[in-house]
Specification:
By secondary structure, the chain is an alpha/beta fold. The protein is built from 19 helices and 10 strands. It has a domain of about 150 residues. It starts with 5 loop residues before the first helix and ends in a 14-residue tail after the last helix.
Length: about 525
């Protein structure tokens, strides 16, 4: 009898609540991991609350144990089809296709498709350790859905962004993932439960019915410390949170009981608010995992209402002096106004009106509409010029040099040969985004000034996109846009010629390999 795909079954059924147990696959130098995987898989198989074990991909390094091999061991031990992460880190579309095909060949039809965190390195620019760059998660979801229609695709979002631009771009990218085939959405790890509530409220307000699963992690002072030091991309912590979690170590049991209560209340709140499940990580001891799930059941059934659970959560996060511990940075953005109880009302926070496009934006938009929107189509003046140039290599090379000369001062053009500036509010993601993501941000931007995860001191490219599009009143166009994978063979060629001759990303029926 084959393994059951409870994850797909339950997330495809309304009013189900699932649990997945995440195991962080270590570097190949770690030889103890097989026993750890089998122990957690045994619990996953024995506990009906657990729909699947989940295995990460390329988290600590690019040389981790093979995730697919680990997943096969977990499947055979648990009797349940695992959730296999696929990181876009150091993957092009060819490698991504191979990994998806390996899942299908091994009967592992559940995939959590992620962009991936920055490569860990002591070098100034860690992106050099990813010669294949990063495959955008929206591109990955789109490709997997069209090539392998039966696969159950999960994708990620972070509701833990605390500026309006960063948060709205996360929700925009979540919608793109759903539109291109994601079956479920997994939220980032976070202890600000108002932000978890916000995600559910946002989904309801925007008629999003896709299942939402919140990620949890064993709450320690070290977790908060690493988050504060930006060592855990996308995870947010405050100094008050760190001090509180550190103080738990003074308890007779070193804080284990209260840490379990934190996780149990988070699980219970997710159930009460109508989320579809939780994704529990950071623990390798089956007994502790089972105890947390048991405690969460007890807490959930004993509470008379979501309000009572929320009151318990607020009481839990107080110092011995009775002072509330802040789980969010100062001056934080929330999509909804406060309901007076520390959660979200149904009233959205007022949005600013469009203040008018910048001169740079207006100029680039004028150039696009004048020379490319219609004239580049067959029979147009630009089409005639570009197709003629394509037949004369020296002219084509000259046009490439001319294009770079014109566009570099305006957008720092990198000569990708498949220009997507109109889709990204004329912000070049090839130059502004360290991961070159053309369909939305990764989840790792830092809280301070919306900094890029990879490049300290540089603002996230997609925060720039949001602000420029919002000023111009074209944010809905950015939200609807989709840029498939670009063909690397077009680099250092004229994108105008590529557009006219139907070789760029706009003309590909499916991502073109290269």
């Amino acid at each position: 009898m084959g393994a059951q795909n409870l994850l797909k079954q339950r997330l495809s059924t309304p009013d189900q609540f699932i649990v997945t147990l995440e195991y962080t696959v270590p570097d190949v130098a770690d030889e103890k991991c097989i026993d750890e995987v089998l122990a957690i898989a045994e619990l996953a198989g024995a506990d009906d609350r657990v729909a699947a074990m989940a295995l990460t991909d390329r988290v600590p390094s690019l040389t981790t144990h093979d995730t697919v091999d680990m997943a096969c061991k977990a499947r055979d031990k648990s009797g349940k089809v695992p959730l296999v992460h696929i990181s876009g880190k150091n993957r092009d579309i060819n490698n991504f296709r191979e990994q998806i095909q390996r899942l299908i060949d091994n009967g592992l039809e559940n995939a959590l498709i992620l962009t991936g965190d920055k490569a860990r390195s002591d070098l100034a620019d860690p992106t050099v350790l990813c010669p294949n760059g990063f495959l955008d998660a929206v591109q990955g979801v789109d490709f997997a859905r069209r090539i392998y229609p039966d696969i159950f695709i999960c994708a990620a979002v972070s509701s833990f962004k605390y500026s309006r631009a960063a948060q709205m771009m996360q929700y925009m990218k979540m919608q793109k993932k759903i539109d291109h085939g994601a079956n479920a959405i997994f939220n980032q790890v976070g202890l600000d439960m108002r932000k978890v509530h916000e995600l559910k409220m946002f989904a309801q307000a925007n008629a999003i019915t896709t299942p939402l699963v919140h990620a949890l992690y064993w709450p320690t002072a070290m977790l908060a410390k690493l988050a504060i030091e930006d060592e855990l991309p996308g995870v947010v912590a405050t100094s008050e949170m760190h001090d509180f979690l550190k103080s738990l170590g003074n308890d007779p049991d070193k804080g284990k009981g209260r840490r379990m209560k934190i996780l149990a209340l988070q699980i219970a709140l997710c159930r009460a608010w109508g989320l579809s499940g939780i994704h529990l990580g950071g623990l390798k001891t089956p007994a502790t995992l089972k105890a947390i799930l048991d405690l969460s059941d007890e807490v959930y059934h004993e509470a008379g209402s979501p309000d009572q659970l929320w009151q318990q959560w607020q009481e839990l996060w107080k110092t011995p002096e009775g002072k509330p511990v802040s789980t969010a940075p100062a001056k934080s953005f929330y999509y909804f106004r406060d309901d007076g109880k520390g959660l979200n009302s149904k009233t959205p926070t007022p949005q600013p009106t469009a203040s008018g496009a910048t001169i740079r934006y207006k100029f680039m938009h004028w150039v696009h509409t004048t020379f490319f929107e219609n004239s580049i189509e067959e029979g147009g003046l630009m089409w005639k010029a570009c197709t003629w140039a394509d037949r004369h290599p020296w002219v084509a090379k000259t046009m490439y040099v001319f294009e770079r000369t014109c566009k570099y001062p305006l957008a720092k053009c990198q000569g990708c040969g498949s220009c997507s500036l109109p889709e990204t509010a004329y912000i070049c993601t090839e130059s502004n985004c360290a991961k070159h993501l053309p369909d939305g941000p990764c989840g790792g931007s830092k809280v301070n000034d919306d900094e890029c995860e990879v490049r300290p001191g540089i603002q996230c490219a997609w925060v720039k996109v949001h602000r420029q599009a919002e000023m111009a009143g074209t944010l809905p166009d950015v939200t609807k846009s989709f840029v498939p994978t670009k063909y690397n063979g077009l680099k250092k060629t004229c994108s105008w010629i590529s557009m006219a001759t139907k070789r760029d990303h706009r003309s590909q029926p499916e991502p073109k390999t290269g």
